[in-house]
UniProtKB/TrEMBL annotation:
GO cellular component: DNA-directed RNA polymerase complex
Keywords in alphabetical order: DNA-binding, DNA-directed RNA polymerase, Nucleotidyltransferase, Sigma factor, Transcription, Transcription regulation, Transferase
Identification of the protein by name: RNA polymerase sigma-54 factor
RNA polymerase sigma factor 54 core-binding domain mapped to chain residues: 82-264
Pfam families, A to Z: Sigma54_AID (PF00309), Sigma54_CBD (PF04963), Sigma54_DBD (PF04552)
Lineage: Bacteria, Pseudomonadati, Pseudomonadota, Alphaproteobacteria, Rhodobacterales
Amino acid sequence: MQISTVQHLGQRQSVVMTAQLQKAICLLQYSNVDLHSVIESESEDNPFIEVKAGATGDSQSMRGIGSRSSGGGIDQGDVLARIQEHDQSLYSHVAKQFDMMFPVPVDRIKADIFLEALEPSGWLGEPLESLAMRLGVALEDAEDWLVRIQQVEPSGLFARSLAECLALQAEEKGVMTPLFRTLLENLPKLAQADLKGLMRACSCDMDELRPALKLLRSLNPKPGADFNGPVAPQRAPDLIVSRADDGWKVDLNKSTLPSVVVNEKKAATLKAAHGDYVNDTLSVALWLRRAVAHRNQTTLAVGAEILRRQSKFMGQGASGLVPMTLKDVAEAIGVHESTVSRVTTDLLMQTPQGTFPLKYLFSASLRKDEGEGGESAAAVRHRIQQLVREEDASSPLSDDAIAKVITGEGTHLARRTVAKYRDILKIPSSFQRRRNALLQAD
């Protein structure tokens, strides 16, 4: 056998992922805070790059199509009206009240430490001792702060236990009696349905205990659970939605958006002595400025398309979410689906309904029985929450009954889908809900 080498010449096209292209792609998924860190890191190695904390230059914003408003700014009356009218995140609801309760910036910062510890249930999720350390105050002072914080509405928020949660509500209603206070001190007996033990502890008979039990059932053990939306964000939003005279508009958050400033005058001064180094380094600086500008333009384009499609959500909350996929947005603005995926990975959008991760606004479509399109899965989950909230506690709706109600409203829904969504929402089964109601009954 004869072995020989043969050389073939030919041409072919391929995409080469350069280091700069990889970095430009990474910039798409950075939040404003992360982007600032990246630019600062680059400026340490490049003498021609300067970073500024807030963006400069012309204002960048885009409008969403389809929603119109004749109003301009939002005053405190508007805020209070929206708190009552629309479903929103618990974080957003409390933050708006804190804005009015704590006008002094230092106090507002301290209040935010409590806000960060607020659980979705409405309870305080961190020991007061730990919060006192974070506040830099004595435990007694932290307790005074907690008393102020617990003045928010609805009453019962920021409680440290079930008894405290219910006590706050009873105090607010003006119905806290010695008998009811004793009842709250003996909630374990109620959980065990030990009515005789309760009567002994309260030194009363059933006729006296019955009104107290009725009052207890009227209170909300988890006042935060009635709100929609994700857990409180821990940083400022990257995009801000607001009303304009002709509809909704979305802006980049200028207060946190960093800008790249290239010191070309300094480069020109050094070029004669360090030609090659200056040319290469200046080229990197100019590229970074272009890449950040492209990141901002892409972010704004994605945000504007999301706003256009979800304008109904801006006014109605979760019930107004419409089906929307990454592919829908990508095709509308003429980019690849992976680009939209990267942009929506870690960015937050501030809306009239609260601040949400962009991914929260995407939802699959469920089949409509008639007509085109379908209902958003997120909107259906919101409807399930509503039905459970409004049901007769002594005769809760089964998964099959919920499926029939929603299907009757025009969106086909299977029983197993209701069960899946109920698990996601952490709603107990109808059997468990009925048992809980019996435990709270006379």
